[in-house]
Amino acid sequence: MAQFNKDSQIYIDGRRVLHDVQMIANKNGDIVTTDNPFPVTGIVYPETHKPGLHYSFNNHAINVHRGWTIESDAMVPMMSVRCKANISVSALAELEEYELGNNNASQSTIVYEWWQGSLTFGGAAVPAFTSVGTRLEYRFYTDWYSSQNGTTVTSFAGCTMIHSGIIIGRTQGGDSVHTALNGTGTATPGTLLTLMAKRVDNATKLDLWGTFNLIEFT
Asked: How far is CA 44 from CA 40, 48, 117, in A?
């Protein structure tokens, strides 16, 4: 087969010693490089982390050595988080990641649920919210330590369980909900997101700790 120089279009004498080097070129014969890539369309790139401001809260400062005590056989509310009042609907935030752990040996089993909506609470008085970041607020409910009666939920009407999980042993780490915590643009706060839990392997109360990591998107 006759060979020609691509650029000069001059015939290459076949008597010369040639060394073949495999190169990838486009349809015009131009070598593909980082400056001359294939003209490919419709590429789907991996999603990058959305920019925002990160915040966190936990319950270790409330009861350092005993955590938050779960009632023995009932699903009870541990904490809630929501967007504050007078925050724009477009000012989104998210519960990005959380971890739950208990102080029992490795055989305990805890079921937990995330509920979205305006739950109806009973039992102990519902505490005030604590601010975190610029858009969000949270509260931990009264627990069931010793003979203390904690907070209950008396109605789930109009609410939806959006996520659930199980802790077998001591720790559930790196779980996420990825539910938008957005404002209403009015004096009404955003939708409540509530974590509930109960021990299912035994009728004995158990302490629970939680860390919650949030992002307010920019």
From this structure: 11, 12, 35
Q: At residue 6, what are phi and psi to the nearest 5 degrees? A: -60, -40
- Tens of pLDDT, residue by residue over 47-83, are 556 789 999 999 988 877 889 999 878 999 999 999 9
Interatomic CA distance for residues 159 and 192, integer angstroms: 9
| C-beta neighbour count of 132 within 10 angstroms | 18
Please, are residues 80 and 195 in contact by the beta-carbon 8 Å criterion? yes
- CA-angle at 7, arms to 4 and 10, nearest 5°: 35
Q: Where are the domains of the chain?
A: 52-217
The partner residues of 153 in beta bridges, in order of sequence, read: 121
Give the tens place of pLDDT for each residue, 150-190. Answer: 999 999 999 999 999 999 887 777 788 888 899 999 999 99
Q: How far is CA 106 from the centre of its chain?
A: 26
Instruction: Report d(CA 57, CA 214) in Å as an integer.
Output: 8
Assess contact for 199 and 207: CB atoms under 8 A: no
